[in-house]
Recover the amino acids of this structure.
């Protein structure tokens, strides 16, 4: 018997005229890890809700077809019963955190299942240990970083050991090493308890090696499904349906295009062999990459001198941080979860006051600014959009900041309509922001900050919840604003976009600045990446493997294609 069967399922929310899912047919075996992906609005979250019973039990709408779990029709099982065997990790981890203590958060589902105390303690230790949170067991969830909150949500679910685990964007706020650690934890749970795992994700590079089956949704339909080999046998279809391509798969596909030979690689080892076949024994001598000199002249936009910040629980989030950012620079800030990135961002616009040290914005101490004046200088887009939303419609939310800063009504109307169109939000203008997906909510808050036209724009995790095309749109927009002279600081775990868009990189670890310099130099320095506990992007790993062939220092798919073409015609 199949573990899960989608039998010609269609679903339409009562608030919409469109069908969220259309004639979905899929079968999932017990113990499989299934990766579900697709562009924003494809129906992925609704797919998850059908499994945990929120659809149709929790949302009004129209259902056609049936979902069967272990042969049972889920429409006949109350949500409270489904929760005993289907565990859910929501897109926003904060939406499912209910306790003020980390240990209590993990205990809660165990108490609901009447687990004995001795076994409860064993499960708590195992789940928190697997997710790297044992040392934080006595903290409150709200003292954790966004990525650590995701780990906590996952830990509380796997502690209950449901036979099915459904996870909606479970690694979106995690650093690359964190993604791998979480997937290893999930794999261990699957192997030990034969759990069936369904994962919805946009950023699938780190997840691909764990998937037994893949499903691509587009406009509410399953357009491709199968084992990874079969799934990626037609990259053209994946591109046509706006599915994400991991860097290794994209490079493999593009090598096939320029050589006329079929390559189907998912990892760097396979790509190394493929490239060596293409270039043979040819080696090219490569001059050192041009050194990017970050302008030491010009106005200073941001200056931190020996800044430290200590939270109420004595956690030292920043430890003697000194940074200078010139007007018109675009700087990336990366680091493992809990390294101090978001704390640093919040000190720049007065949300947090440093415990010691000084911060100057355009030469003026941050404490000397009036709050309204500082908001006009430093715009901050929060990691979690829910923390920033305060109005009842999307249109009002985008206008809110401009009204508070005294913008002319005609300018406000013009900016609102321009930004609604620019970020594909026009159809949501009169909708309540809380009713949007997390990806759409982020674009609303992003637009609301951009509308105020701050001199400095600080964006915390700009690609969270966005599909691949939307991520590029946001990064392209930031690059355009930077070219106009705006100072941009981007906090992100998405190293692929760092390599493509950002030249100056700051790496943080344990509240300190570990590196401040050229992005290429950082990604080409394996020792530095190891010491920062960050896993290098796939193209950097590949450049290490092929360094003796003339590929040292390459950090993007485009650069590899250019070098392969050069060597192939050598």
């Amino acid at each position: 018997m199949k573990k899960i069967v989608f039998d010609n399922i269609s679903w339409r929310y009562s608030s919409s005229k469109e069908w969220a899912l259309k004639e979905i047919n899929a079968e999932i075996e017990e113990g499989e890890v299934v990766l579900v992906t697709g562009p924003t609005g494809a129906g992925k979250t609704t797919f998850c809700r059908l499994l945990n019973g929120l659809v149709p039990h929790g949302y009004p709408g129209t259902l056609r077809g049936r979902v069967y779990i272990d042969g049972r029709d889920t429409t006949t099982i109350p949500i409270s019963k489904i929760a005993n065997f289907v565990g859910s990790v929501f897109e926003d981890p904060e939406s499912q955190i209910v306790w003020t203590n980390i240990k209590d958060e993990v205990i809660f589902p165990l108490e609901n299942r009447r687990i004995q105390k001795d076994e409860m303690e064993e499960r708590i230790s195992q789940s928190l240990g697997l997710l790297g949170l044992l040392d934080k067991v006595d903290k409150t969830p709200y003292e954790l970083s966004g990525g650590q909150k995701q780990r906590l949500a996952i830990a509380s679910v796997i502690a209950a050991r449901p036979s099915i685990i459904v996870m909606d964007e479970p690694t979106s706020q995690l650093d690359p090493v964190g993604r791998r650690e979480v997937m290893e934890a999930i794999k261990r749970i699957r192997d030990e308890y034969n759990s069936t795992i369904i994962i919805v994700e946009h950023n699938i590079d780190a997840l691909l090696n764990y998937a037994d089956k893949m499903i691509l949704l587009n406009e509410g339909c399953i357009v491709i499904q199968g084992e990874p080999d079969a799934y990626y046998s037609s990259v053209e279809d994946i591109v046509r349906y706006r599915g994400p391509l991991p860097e290794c798969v994209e490079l493999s596909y593009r090598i096939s295009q320029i050589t006329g030979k079929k390559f189907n690689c998912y990892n760097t080892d396979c790509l190394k062999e493929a490239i060596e076949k293409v270039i043979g024994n040819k080696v090219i001598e490569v001059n050192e990459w041009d050194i990017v000199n970050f302008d030491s002249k010009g106005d200073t936009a941001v200056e931190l001198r020996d800044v430290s910040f200590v939270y109420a629980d004595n956690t030292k989030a920043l430890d003697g941080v000194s940074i200078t950012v010139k007007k018109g620079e675009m700087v990336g800030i990366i680091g493992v979860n809990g390294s101090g990135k978001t704390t640093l961002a919040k000190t720049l616009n007065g949300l947090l006051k440093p415990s010691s040290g000084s911060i100057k914005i355009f030469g003026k101490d941050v404490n000397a600014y009036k709050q309204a004046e500082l908001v006009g200088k430093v715009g901050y887009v929060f990691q979690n959009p829910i923390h920033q939303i305060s109005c009842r419609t999307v249109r009002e939310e985008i206008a809110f900041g401009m009204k508070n800063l005294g913008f002319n009504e005609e300018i406000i109307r013009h900016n609102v309509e321009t930004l609604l169109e620019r970020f594909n939000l026009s159809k949501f203008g009169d909708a309540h922001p809380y009713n949007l997906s997390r990806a759409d909510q982020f674009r609303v808050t992003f637009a609301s900050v951009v509308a105020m036209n701050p001199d400095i724009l600080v964006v915390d995790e700009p690609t969270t919840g966005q599909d691949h095309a939307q991520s590029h749109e946001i990064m392209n927009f930031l690059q355009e604003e930077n070219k106009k002279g705006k100072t941009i600081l981007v906090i992100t775990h998405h190293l692929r976009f760092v390599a493509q868009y950002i030249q100056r990189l700051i790496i943080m670890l344990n509240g300190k600045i570990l590196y401040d310099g050229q992005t290429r130099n950082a990604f080409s320095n394996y020792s530095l990446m190891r010491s920062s506990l960050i896993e290098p992007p796939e193209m950097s790993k590949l450049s290490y493997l092929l360094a003796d062939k003339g590929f040292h220092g390459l950090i993007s798919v485009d650069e590899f294609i250019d070098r392969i073409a050069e060597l192939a015609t050598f």
